[in-house]
Amino acid sequence: MEGMEDINLKTNGSDTFSKFTLANMVSLPSSLTEPTTRSTAQAQLNAESPMGKYTERMVEDILTEIFKERRGDFPETSSSCHAANIPWPIKEREPHVDKRLRYWKEVLHQRKLMQERVQRETGKLASEVLFNRRSTLDNRDGQMVKRVLDYADRMKGERLMSAPLSKLGDQLDPCTCQVVPGLQATTPKAEKVGYKDLEIVGMPEVCKTEILGKEAMEQDPPPGWLQSEFLDKRLEQNFVDIQNVVEFFPDVDALQVKGTALSKINRLPKPFLVDVDSMHTVTKSESSPICTEECICESCGETEEKSSGTPPPIPDVGLRVNGVDYVPCEGDGGGIKDCYEIVARFTCDPFQRRLKHVLQLTNIGTQSLSFSWKQSTYYYNRGSLLLAQDNEFHFDLEGFRLSHGETRNVAVLYQPRKVAMAVELWLLQVEPRIFCGRQESLLLRLYGRCTPPADYMAKLLECQCVCICKSDAVEMDKLTTHLGALAPMVVPPPTCCPYERPLDDREAFNALNPGYICARFDDLEVLRAFHQRLKKPREPLWDMRLSTIKDYIMRINGLVERESIFSEFNQLLAPLLGGGFSLNASSQQDVQKQRSRFIYVRGVICNGIAEWEDLMFNVEDSFFKPELQRYYQSLLGESEEGDEEEPDQPKPMTPIDMEKLMEILGETELDEKKIRTAVIRKLYRSKYFRDALYIQTYSHLCNMSEDIVSVIESTEIVPT
């Protein structure tokens, strides 16, 4: 007996555990409509576990195989004669399915099995386990009614007047020998104020349908406390007290807002008239005079003229913005995809006002439209750039509604207080939705520019001129004060050479002594010997300057000796004196230099053009071969069309493909010239080919420009 009791306790415990755990795991409504009873679920739980059956079946299969092997009974293989004639079922290949879809399908299957198990264990549908009327809707409504009745009972006038005051007794403090008054109980706020603004909480029918499901809402509600006669009698008895607490009890179901889809309000196709002068119906029957009449409709033209004068039908949803009509029903997608944007520009001086009408909205539909303003960022990457901070743009930002035929004008007031630029972006949202773009609203861009006044600019320019003139006068005084102390420094112009090379003694002498030209080395040796005679033993060698020899002559003390040596020095310099530089030679040299420069630049340009032609030919050849192979593959039906997408690498051609290609070319009568022309046309329209040409041409032009500049700079100064 004790063992049986233990088994029953374990069974009941597992039953209770499975009910609550499985009920909490359900997340999707079940589609089963055949509920089982609790006796059936209990019988299934008391039955033998499937694991035991599986173990017994496995043991039986092993023993059967052992006995067959001992008797000599071997299983037939695929090589048997009669087994080969058996039609083996061909397994269908599973189509390619995304892993996420396959995983979601498995999850739904597992949840469905779990729902079936919950239904077997508890005898309830999955939707009745988590979301039922008694625990969600009826409980909420019942608590709301109880709250109303409680406040109605507490806020009675007789009860408020006769409410007892709860207070603790007075105590004597032994330390100070003083009487401490007792604490009074805190009165609730409703009784203390004598008024309670009760809030009604409820759920409309749309929310109830979403929670319980459409099938559960169509069923009759089960009888409960809210539908009892006792509650009705109590409400009638306390009706006067309830009115003191709740002035008006709203109909929660009537507060719901039901929208109408744009697809349901699309207008039907308009009938059109056929241009027919007259329509004749002639019958040959002579039995009745009615059938022998000729039905001639000569008034078709008049009907067409009358129909053209009738006013167009009024759409359900429509808006006119600045004279342009927008009817979302006329589009295929149910809305207007184009972004409607209005830009308003203002320009004025500080503390001036500019008023401009920017919008005129007219409701041309039968439904009422609701409008609301919302501010957005003007620049998406810099939200605070040039943002108006001082209420520069002022207009009515309150939401509004427009019925059929009503019009509203929106005017913006620009009132800057300092010289700056300010921008703002406002979104006008419309309900029901008309603009179906990314913003789903109408964009209003405000751009304000506050310029300084003309008088202020003139005064500022005058102050700048005074400051600049004063600073210039100070600098001029400093320069003229020390002008006498400045010594003129005459420096000969440097001779630039396009290449580096060591100069010989004659070139160094000519460069260091302007006006003298030494053409022979013997003259330099004579001057070097003359310098050696005049210098002292410890003095440095001659530096190729005639001024050094003159200094040595001037330091001789004897007048006669100095004059004789100076006359000898002049005799040595007489053949070295050169004539003045002719102007004709300089002009001829400039012309020759310019011609040389033109020749060099022309050569650089010609070489660059030739290189560019070779470069373009190589680029075209590199693009032509893959494009030709793609063209062949397109003939074979293996490539997809589309120039905007990135081209894939062409696949290699197999011998079978080449045979098919030759057959196709023979059928279509395409020769090599036509194929080359078609491929080149497609190649010239390719975006990637054009981008490659542009990039290579730009790089080559930059290199040519650098070469031309280098040639001009190198031929600017020619050494003399």
TrEMBL record:
InterPro entries xref list: MYCBPAP (IPR032707)
Domain of life: Eukaryota
Protein name (record): AT21895p
Organism: Drosophila melanogaster (Fruit fly)
Gene coding for it: CG30384;CG30385;CG11074
